[in-house]
Amino acid sequence: MEIRTIKPFLEYLDSIHERTLRAARCIPADKLESLCAPGKFTAGDLLRHIAVTKRFMFAETVLGHPHRYTTESRQLADGLDNVLALLERLHAESRELLSRLSDADLQRLCTTPTGAQIPVWVLLRAMTEHEIHHRGEVYHYLGLFGVAAPPLFGATSEQVKAAGTAL
Q1: Ordered domains of the chain (ranges, CATH)
Q2: Is the pLDDT at 143 greater than 80, yes or no?
Q3: Is 64 left (phi over 0), alpha (psi -120 to 50) or beta?
Q4: How far is the C-alpha of 140 from the C-alpha of 131, rounded, in Å?
Q5: Residue 159, exposed/middle/buried by CB under 10 A (0-12, 13-18, 19+)?
Q6: What is the pTM of this model?
Q7: In terms of C-beta density within 10 A (0-12 exposed, 13-18 middle, 19 or more buried), how is residue 164 classed?
Q8: What are 93-121's pLDDT values in tens digits?
């Protein structure tokens, strides 16, 4: 789906971010840096990655600047409160920068970190897919931690099943 106007896109971006925050706030503080397997992101790494990639890779790239994403390490933010603050701060910075785009800017080409030339709107769509993808991993961590995950749209799958009819 093509993004043709910036304002509705920013509202959509905010709604994606809010659902990410709801999941992030459920992570037990003592499990934030637990690994599910060697060499994989921790839940904290995932949240830092979402934050810094949005701000320092996606936002910079669509504005025509070189990306500045280099790490998602604990040196950026350590502890759940600090990680949540980073997630919120970098989302706000990204949103403010993206709000400067005109609707016409969405059609111009930008150069991705790998050198591809694509319309700005395509990279913005990829930014939302990136956050949603990693939020799914956060949900998986919540399951591993034995924590009930918040419903995405107000109802759990069990509630939807109970309200449905049998096949």
Answers
A1: 6-163 (1.20.120.450)
A2: yes
A3: left
A4: 14
A5: exposed
A6: 0.93
A7: exposed
A8: 999 999 999 999 999 999 999 999 999 99
